[in-house]
Amino acid sequence: MYEELRKIVIPEFIFGFNSRLLIGSYAKNLGAEKVLIVTDDGIINAGWLEDIVQSLSEHEIEYIVYRDVFPNPRECDVMLGADVFETEKCNFIIAVGGGSPMDCAKGIAIVVSNGGSVLDYEGVDLVPLPGPPLICIPSTAGTSADVSQFAIVSDTMRLVKIAIISKKVVPDLSLIDPVLLTTMGDYLTACTGMDALTHAIEAYVSNASSPITDLHALESVRLIRKSLIPLYENRRDESALRDMMMASLHAGIAFSNASLGAVHAMAHSLGGIFDLAHGECNSILLEHVIHRNYPFASERYDEIGRAFGLAEPSRENLVSAISEMRKTLGIGGKIEMKIQAKDVEKLAEFALADPCMVTNPVQYDKLEIIELYERVLTL
Ligand SMILES: [Fe+2]
User: Fold this and answer.
1) Domain annotation covers residue 62
2) Does the pTM of the predicted model rise above 0.90?
């Protein structure tokens, strides 16, 4: 007679144009003395670091920039960042960038408080101590690491992306500023937007969804349908900038609390072995997983179809509308990389073991995952 209990974690955030400029005063209030800024060359070359360090300097906060973050951050990037944090006697972390710098920063926070390797904390709720204060400033509308309980790190020995899911990796504050989206390239806009769409859809059909996450997931789908293509076509479109940043935020709140599903489990596995862009893997897998999952959550998928603007929601109509959007965004339908059949088996094993698989509306067996991979891989 009672519904299952659901816990919702959402960090403090400030949403709006130029919210990044508040960094100095908020860092000061949270006790920053010396900050490790985790970012990458893309952000530095786009000029986004200048405002941030100026604001810190105005508040007499020291900082050191750690920019050696690879796309799909590796455990060695995290461990090196943790060394810099300790050697430089930092007491605070600011991440500026997309998923890679934010996930790397989360990993650094875990290691400097808990010791050991970041890989020791793989899994759900396995981080004992909170890290130093962390503020995130996201530069893409997709990953939502700035509000999520997830940190994804590449294990370069096992060639797999590991997921750390813990309340301890939720930032203390996020400054969510749509202005940063203006310097994204076409492909990044496309892939990160499709990643956000995947978050919203997987959260909505997740076994761990709830009325609160449902609200956010559906609003995200509606906003992405309205604004992703306009943003892809014009990164100066103010309402598309705002809508997509908001869509990503909604999707982040939804998936952080409802978790994800087979698309992410399979994308993590692919991205670990082949170092592919996360959003690209999701975009390509999404329609195939919807097709496979639909009979097990048809009403939920139809609700997504309605939010996506379909007059007659159905399995075929939803799959083709999403496929149409992917094509309009210039994303192909296949992973353009030669893969050997024996590697597909390994991919499937890693995907099966990924924590995101647990909340998929139906549990796949290894053969089904192999079949799904074979549809998108070039064998
Ligand atoms: Fe994602």
Assistant:
1) yes
2) yes
pLDDT digits (tens, 9 = 90+) for 59-82: 999 999 999 898 889 999 999 999
In a domain? residue 314: yes
Sheet hosting strand 160-165, strand order edge to edge: 123-124, 160-165, 150-155
pLDDT at 119: 96
| Residue 130 dihedral angles phi and psi, to the nearest 5° | -70, 155
Tokens of 195: 């990643």
Judge if 275 and 171 occupy the same domain.
no
Residues 6+ apart with CB under 8 A from 102: 38, 95, 136, 138, 143, 145, 146
CATH code of residue 249: 1.20.1090.10
Which pLDDT value is given to residue 273? 82
Instruction: Give the pairing type, strands 62-66 and 34-38.
Output: parallel
Q: Are residues 28 and 175 in the same domain?
A: yes
Q: pLDDT band at 341, cuts 50/70/90?
A: confident
CA of 6 to the centre of ligand 1 (A): 22
Q: Give the CATH number for residue 57.
A: 3.40.50.1970
Examine residue 3 and state whether it is found in any structural domain, yes or no: no
Q: How far is the CA of 123 from the centre of ligand 1 (A)?
A: 16
What is the percentage of the chain residues whose pLDDT exceeds 70? 99
The answer to whether residue 4 sits within a structural domain is no
Enclosing domain of residue 41:
12-180
Q: Which residues surround ligand 1, an ion (CB under 5 A)?
A: 195
Q: 145 C-alpha vs ligand 1 centroid, how far in Å?
A: 9
Sheet holding 134-138, edge to edge: 12-15, 173-176, 134-138, 92-97, 34-38, 62-66
pLDDT at 316 over 90: yes
